[in-house]
Write a structure and sequence with these properties.
- By secondary structure, the chain is α/β, with parallel strands linked by helices.
- It contains 13 helices and 10 strands.
- The strands form 2 sheets. An 8-stranded parallel sheet has the order 9-8-7-6-5-4-3-10, with helices on one face.
- Strand 7, helix 5 (about 160-175) and strand 8 (about 180-185) form a beta-alpha-beta unit.
- Helix 10 packs across helix 11 (about 290-300).
- The longest helix has 18 residues, at about 245-260.
Length: about 325
């Protein structure tokens, strides 16, 4: 396993991050393919044995039981200093705006996550999607207070535009606050819109990219037509990918071709491509072979010709997922003081 720093922070992480959305007790309206505690523990054990120390969860995953499961597993399997925990808070809903301030909401969410995780601090605390209902200065000040209190080592953001990240970090620098050191966006071989603005900005400013959906919910790990329980049940993933399935399928066929020539799995090829672009992709793992493929990808170095071959057929995609649902539709100056 290789290790690196998260941007300009002192948080050292493995080049593979295990996404923990697949852990926890299923909740109504949530993912139904999640693992129970004992199965979660075995996956985490196997990841640790393979040198992975970076795990990403969120307060909303399986109603908070994802955090509970991984926190319990770490206590039973290792020591706190051996793992790097990232978790995420969700912005207030419209009906909560009059009930609690933005700063108090962040404090409350963090304390609740720490309690579920059974730890005094998290290594990376992430705004799960851009908060259009809270002035960014208010959010940054609350996050900075968490860093100063020792509850958070570094902060990140997920699902935002490059201009938002740029302005937020400019405000952080102006006020002497902790900046966002990482961005968790939607980025993989069949969803490359992050390359337009976000990736160049991150490269220029040493901001870590830790993208989710690294394998496009499994689409980049198997040939077109092959299916899994998740592919059949994950309506949100279908929302993100079904409209471009035909164009994406041609790229997936090239992944299979390169994998066959190299004698490796499609997972390894897809993640090796992404690893050539980012700090540490977030990879979901509910079976040991998912971890095997991710670890193997770190060792696989694609040639420039292979990378160009994989990229050649990409066509522009409309924003999908959270970025399509949560975007500014008019003037947003009200959130900038």
């Amino acid at each position: 396993m290789e290790y690196t720093k998260l941007g300009r922070s002192d948080v050292e992480v493995s080049r593979i991050c295990i996404g923990c959305m697949g852990f926890g007790t299923p909740v109504p309206g949530g993912h139904q393919w999640t693992l129970d505690y004992e199965s979660t523990k075995e996956i985490i054990r196997y990841a640790l044995e393979n040198g992975i120390n970076f795990f990403d969860t969120a307060m909303v995953y399986s109603g908070g039981t994802s955090e509970e499961f991984i926190g319990r597993a770490f206590r039973e399997l290792t020591t706190r200093d051996k793992v790097r925990i990232a978790t995420k808070y969700s912005p207030r809903r419209p009906d909560q705006l009059e009930q609690i301030s933005g700063k108090d909401w962040i404090r409350q969410c963090l304390d609740n996550s720490l309690q579920r995780l059974g730890t005094d601090y998290v290594d990376l605390y992430i705004m799960h999607s851009w908060d259009y209902n809270t002035p960014v200065e208010e959010s940054l000040e609350a996050l900075n207070e968490a860093v100063k209190a020792g509850k958070v080592r570094a902060i990140g953001v997920s699902n935002c535009y490059a201009w938002q990240l740029a302005q937020a970090n400019a405000l952080a620098e102006k006020n002497g606050w902790a900046p966002f050191v990482s961005i968790q966006g939607h980025y993989n071989l069949i969803a490359r819109e992050e390359e337009r603005e976000m990736a160049p900005f991150c490269y220029a400013n040493d901001i870590a990219m830790t993208p989710y959906s690294a394998l496009a919910a499994g689409r980049l790990s198997r040939k077109p037509g092959e299916t899994t329980k998740r592919l059949e049940m994950d309506a949100f993933a279908r929302f993100k990918y079904d409209s471009t399935a035909e164009a994406d399928g041609r790229i997936i066929e090239r992944v299979a071709e390169v994998a066959e020539k190299r004698g490796v799995s499609m997972t390894e090829v897809s993640l090796a491509w992404l690893l050539s672009k980012v700090t540490a992709p977030v990879v979901g793992a509910t079976k040991p072979h998912h971890i095997d493929g991710a670890v193997g990808a770190v060792e696989l170095k694609l040639t420039p010709e292979e990378i160009a071959y994989l990229e050649e057929l990409y066509i522009p995609h409309a924003l999908a997922g959270v970025m399509a649902q949560n975007r500014p539709t008019g003037p947003v100056n009200n959130i900038w003081k």
